Amino acid sequence: RDDLADFAYIIHHLSQVFDLGNADNSLFNIFWHPDDPHLMGFNRNRLIFLNLAHYVSKPVPLGAAYIEWYYIIVHEMAHNITPFHDEHHELLVAALSSRYLPRLHKVPEIFDTLECGAGFS
User: Fold this and answer.
1) CA 11, CA 21: separation in Å to the nearest integer?
2) CA distance 105 to 53
3) Burial class of 77 by CB neighbour count within 10 A (0 to 12, 13 to 18, 19+)
4) Are 11 and 23 in contact, with CB atoms under 8 Å apart?
5) How far apart, in whole angstroms, are the C-alpha atoms of residue 52 and residue 57?
6) What string of H, E and C letters represents the secondary structure of 31-72?
7) Strands 47-51 and 28-31, how do they pair?
8) Could you tell me if 90 and 75 are in contact, meaning their C-beta atoms sit under 8 angstroms apart?
9) C-alpha pair distances (Å), 17 with each of 1, 14, 85
10) In angstroms, rounded to a whole number, what is the distance separating the alpha carbons of residues 114 and 69?
11) Which residues are 28's β-sheet partners?
12) pLDDT band at residue 118 under the 50/70/90 scheme
């Protein structure tokens, strides 16, 4: 099993959920910081850095990994607008989460994890 390839696949797929084209894939940067696997990611200069060590330290089924990293990325995307953890940030997280959630539900791994009905669109 190749953790980096698996993680990169999830992040690449999520970049499509967030409607970021290939030109914007450099927005996401994967780093390795095993000394602090609780550090999920951070935002610097409008770029989002995601810790492979967190992904590796917390093995979950693929669908659950998509959901977890979806919300981590949403959190960091909100930091592109505000650096603080305040009410404004929380409202941005909620708005971004809601905006892209229908697209996340269409990812086959999520569809299977949530056991969505065939009539869901």
Assistant:
1) 13
2) 26
3) buried
4) no
5) 9
6) ECCCCCCCCCEEEECCEEEEEHHHHHHCCCCHHHHHHHHHHH
7) parallel
8) no
9) 25, 5, 24
10) 16
11) 48
12) very low
Looking at 29-33, 64-68, 106-110, 112-116, which range is the least confident one? 112-116
Rounded to 5 degrees, φ, ψ at 7 are: -65, -45
Facing residues of 51 across strands?
Answer: 31
- Per-residue model confidence as pLDDT tens digits over 60-88: 999 999 999 999 999 999 999 999 999 99
d(CA 29, CA 95): 23
Model pTM?
0.87
d(CA 63, CA 81): 28
- What is the distance between the alpha carbons of residues 59 and 54, in angstroms, rounded to a whole number? 9
Tokens at 5, concatenated: 């390839």
**Distance, CA of 55 to CA of 38 (rounded, Å):** 9
